[in-house]
Amino acid sequence: MFMRRSRPANVSYTSPIFQSPRNVFPRIALRPEVQEYLHSVYTNKELVTELGQEEAERMFESLLSCLSHPPSLTCLRASTHKYSLQDIQYRLEQHLTQQQLSSCYGDNVTAPILHHPLLPDVLLLPVSGPRVVSVLNSEVVVDAQCGSAVLRGAHVFAPGVLSPSKFMKAGDAVSVFSDVEGKCTRGAKEFQGKKVFLGNGVCAMDRAEIFCAEGPIRGVAIRMVEALYQSPSFDGVLPNELFLQNLPSVVVGHVLGPRPGERILDMCAAPGGKTTHIAALMGNQGVVVALEKIKSKVEKISHNAQTLQLDCIKAYCYNSIHAVSSDLTQESDTDGPPFREESFDRILLDAPCSGLGQRPNMAINWSLKEVCSYPPLQRKLFNTAVRLLKKEGVLVYSTCTVTLAENEEQVAWALKTFPCLTLEPQEPHLGSEGMIGAALSRDQRHLLQRFRPELAWGGVSNGDPSENLLLKASTDTIGFFIAKFIKR
Fold first, then answer.
1. CA dist., res. 475 & res. 471, Å (int)
2. What pLDDT is stored for residue 104 in this prediction?
3. Do residues 436 and 45 lie in contact, with contact meaning Cβ atoms separated by under 8 Å?
């Protein structure tokens, strides 16, 4: 039996699967100068003129609140290049049923598996929460990255544990908290700083095992059994058939529109989710070149390609900024970088960015200088992309951030800098249009796709629950941006 405190957790709320989100956690913590910068983005003159000051302020507050909470659904990309979606769904249902039967704790309920009406290779699972969960006597503090993973359905892995109780043993029931501000020292016996409750679990390791003298230990340290937000754990689940991926990231692959036999470049490819999706959409026919400048990340791309049985992917450790060859005699179909100009039919530039759209994220400790350091890098990569793209080729630019400078302003810059580029309609178009404030016309903004979870945050759901969930699947997402160009 779990030993519970007499008082409930100060973050306990009742919420069935289909209920609208509530502010269980504090809004995302940012440095004051970063928050002021984002505030200026969401209350820019053009936007306030369009919406009014009060509505613009409300949108900004909704953004800060929703970023610290997980999306309403978990998105799984299915390997439909190998198996039918129905067969994959059946095997997933069997696995989740077995997972539920093997759990000795908690009140697990198998969630329905939904199809997305516009994404034929996606399965969706509703996230149940926030749920009523009471705090136990024994506590464990984990780092913010681990805490975010727990909110998306993961167990607690040993590297994420910061402060377990002094006498914690395998089999103990514990409450798991996330260190919001990154101030907890690894190995501390107690922590009195700012933390948020994530749920309860059962220890799979002793404290001594987690902090053994031989070096870092891996594996599950705590199995979550009563999470505040409950979603199945997908660690090792049908690895050849499913890939855990945010829905906007899946949309990117479809917007790029790869075709069998083409030569496609993914410029910033790690960890390989979009790379493998491109290869799958091509039916594993053609060539997908994946570039990444960190060797360990290249190995991860190759591992994912192998796991998903996609052998048309060629991954290289290379800085994409320098991917254009100065050797005019070089063959255009050379396997590895650098490449001749106009070597690729389609290019994905999923650019390095400030990542301010990621969810859940309870705190970002970056300085304003760090947040603003990305646009120059993105423009260097963009310049390379335009040079490597064939005429009539497609270039898709995407980020997982919410700033104008990294999104709409980059589009405005690109259209001015490269007259050969034109914006193109996107299919599917599930997000909102581009944000006001970058001097783009309404028609240009209409061609852009910005996923804005703050627009759906706290909305009232009416009607059929499954229809409401499918609407949330396309709106209650991470913050994300997509632009599609054709080179004339």
1. 6
2. 54
3. no
Instruction: Tell me: pLDDT of 323 over 60.
Output: yes
Question: Burial of 101 by CB count in 10 Å (0-12 exposed, 13-18 middle, 19+ buried)?
Answer: exposed
* Contact yes or no for 462/456 (Cβ under 8 A): no
* Cβ–Cβ under 8 Å, residues 77 and 85: no
Mean pLDDT of 220-233: 91
Q: How far apart are CA 404 and CA 41, in angstroms?
A: 7
Q: Which one has a higher pLDDT value, 167 or 339? A: 339
Sequence-ordered list of residues with C-beta below 8 angstroms from that of 76, at least 6 positions apart, any chain: 92, 122, 123, 124, 125, 234, 242, 243, 244, 245
Helix (H, G, I), strand (E, B) or coil at 431: coil
Cβ distance 244 to 154 under 8 Å? Answer: no
- Average pLDDT of the chain is 90
* Residue carrying structure tokens 């209409």: 446
Cβ neighbour number for residue 72 with a 10 Å cutoff: 27
Give me the residues paired with residue 176 across strands. 140, 199
Q: How far, in Å, CA of 255 to CA of 169, rounded?
A: 50
- At residue 333, the pLDDT reads 61
Has residue 458 got a pLDDT over 50? yes
Active site residues: 400
How far CA 438 is from CA of 9, 103, 381, 419, in Å, comes to 44, 51, 20, 18
Rounded Cα distance between 45 and 129, Å, is 37
pLDDT beyond 60 at 131: yes
Would you tell me how many other CB atoms lie within 10 Å of the CB of residue 446?
Answer: 14
Phi, psi of 348, deg, nearest 5:
-105, 120
pLDDT digits (tens, 9 = 90+) for 391-424: 999 999 999 999 999 999 999 999 999 999 999 9
Match 């690729």 to its residue by tokens. 344
Give tens-digit pLDDT for 251-265: 999 999 999 999 999
CA distances from residue 338 to 73, 177, 344, 382, 384 in whole angstroms, order as listed: 40, 47, 12, 16, 11
Task: Decide: helix, strand or coil at residue 19.
Answer: coil
* Tokens encoding 245: 């991926």
Poorest-pLDDT segment among 97-101, 297-301, 348-352: 97-101
Pair type for strands 263-266 and 344-350: parallel
Query: Is the distance from CB of 359 to CB of 344 less than 8 angstroms?
Result: no
